[in-house]
Design goal:
Shape of chain B: flat
Largest interface: A-B, 69 and 79 residues
Largest sheet of chain B: 2 strands, antiparallel
Order of helices and strands of chain A: HEEHHHHHH
Radius of gyration of chain B: 25 Å
Strand order of the largest sheet of chain A: 1-2
Number of domains of chain A: 1
CATH architecture of chain A: Orthogonal Bundle
Helix content of chain B: 55-70%
Distance between the termini of chain B: 46 Å
Radius of gyration of chain A: 16 Å
Oligomer: heterodimer
Strand content of chain B: under 5%
């Protein structure tokens, strides 16, 4: 891992932690809108599969070690293993796939970006639901009702947001000459 | 984000539990979690709960700290319990309550209750770990435990360094986000108004500068580290070297005895439904 990669991973982990603290209450859902998922999408898109995965891994390790980096200033291994922990663990394969799908393209079209982020969301949901089902002894249908439906509308809005924001950020950092040689569009 | 990040939810103390090697504590907590997942009856859960309470007392953790994180989880657990009650109908289970279309089986009641106890204990055990071990200690411990994985390409040392750097930057970025929000408000962005799609997109003028600045900061960090002659993880020494002591071996004996009791309870008593 080069120093440049290391520092970017650290900054992105910090971004995920900071964005997880933003919380906007929604009128129709008990689950508030947090920026965590947006930051995870962008980590995959802007850092690529390997470094994006490391950023999420460090985030989860920090959270497990008790730093209050999860949403609402929560932290501790209990959160990671508790009812909603599966979603956090699902970020790992999610961000890897999202990065893999996007890292070959200097400026991916919006459709491809959205598709990659949907894959990431799919991984998150899959891991979250399986974890919930195993932990609570749920059946398949119950787990979907309790674990996916309440989150779906807000998460789709986050994808729309992250895709547009990601493309603009990518353009800006390319214009500012901040891309690495090894990175898509760099050099 | 006002709480001290390096401390996390750590409660400083000098009890035997605080002073154990973090590796012992991480491995011990993992072992306890494994036991908890395998536990299948009330007697074994009761003995596990007794052990957990003994740990809390030994660490001199005020009960209100240990239970603090549980409160937001309770409504969730209650809903889950009702779910189990209504929908858990394995073939051959006896119906113990029936009203209209609602049939509650004894298996549903048992599964719901056992699962809720499991989640509560799982949370307590992991909370004890993070209450008695600081984030930095846990980082050191995790690095030491992950080091064997370095051979298959997991950069354990670099990841540990990244964790520490991240801790340093979270408050900086949170502060910066706040500054940007204030600056944009002064320019007329009305945060927190309108429907939720509009609210989501109000984050746009906050996120863009935040992310682009993060890339700039990363470059500044490289310059700072290189000018201090950082050459990578290899050959770095530690100020505090982890050492296993007599209390660690004692902790392992206690854990082994407790695990044996639990396994006997699980096999002898069996599941109640």
């Amino acid at each position: 891992m080069s120093l440049r990669e290391l520092s970017r991973i650290a900054l992105f982990t910090a971004l995920i932690s900071a964005l997880a603290q933003i919380s906007i209450p929604l009128p129709f859902s008990p689950v508030p809108l947090t920026g965590q998922l947006i930051a995870v999408f962008l980590a995959g898109m802007l850092l690529g599969s390997k470094n994006g995965t490391f950023a999420v891994l460090v985030y989860l390790m920090l959270g497990a070690a008790g730093a209050p980096v999860f949403s609402h200033g929560q932290g501790g291994l209990g959160i990671l293993l508790g009812p909603s922990g599966g979603y956090l663990l699902g970020f790992l394969p999610g961000v890897f796939i999202c990065g893999k799908l996007l890292e070959k393209h200097q400026q991916p079209v919006i459709l491809r970006t959205v598709a990659a982020m949907l894959c990431c969301l799919g991984c998150t949901y899959l891991a979250g639901t399986v974890h919930l089902a195993l932990l609570m002894g749920y059946g398949f249908a119950e787990a979907i009702v309790a674990g996916i439906l309440p989150f779906l509308p807000a998460d789709l809005a986050k994808i729309a947001f992250a895709a547009t924001a990601g493309l603009r950020i990518k353009r800006s950092i390319a214009a500012a000459g901040l891309l690495m040689k090894s990175e898509p569009g760099g050099g | 984000m006002t709480r001290n990040l390096t401390l996390g939810i750590y409660l400083p103390g000098k009890t035997a539990l605080h002073c154990l090697d973090p590796r012992t504590k991480i491995a011990g907590a993992s072992g306890l979690i494994l036991l908890l997942i395998l536990t299948n009856n009330y007697a074994a859960y009761a003995s596990f709960a007794a052990f957990t309470i003994a740990l809390i007392l030994a660490a001199k953790i005020p009960l209100r700290f240990a239970l603090k994180g549980l409160r937001p989880m309770l409504p969730f657990l209650a809903i889950m319990w009702v779910f189990q009650l209504l929908f858990q109908k394995p073939p051959g289970a006896a119906v113990i309550f029936s009203w209209g279309i609602i049939n509650i089986t004894d298996a549903g009641l048992h599964i719901g209750t056992l699962m809720s106890i499991r989640v509560l204990l799982l949370f307590l055990v992991t909370t004890i770990l993070t209450l008695t071990t600081s984030t930095v200690e846990l980082t050191d411990g995790a690095e030491a435990l992950l080091r064997p994985l370095q051979k298959i390409g997991l950069p354990a040392q670099e990841l540990a360094l990244t964790m520490v750097i991240t801790l340093r930057f979270v408050p900086t970025l949170a502060e910066e986000a706040e500054k940007i929000i204030k600056a944009q408000t002064a320019r007329g962005v009305d945060f927190g108004r309108g429907n939720f799609i509009r609210r989501t997109f109000q984050l746009f003028p906050v996120l863009l500068p935040l992310f682009i600045n993060a890339f700039k900061r990363a470059d500044e960090l490289i310059t700072a580290m290189e000018s201090r002659c950082y050459t990578g993880g290899a050959g770095r020494t530690k100020m505090k070297v982890l050492r296993m002591g007599r209390s660690d071996y004692l902790a392992w004996v206690v854990f082994a005895v407790f695990a044996a009791i639990q396994v006997v309870l699980m096999i002898k008593v069996g599941r109640p439904y």
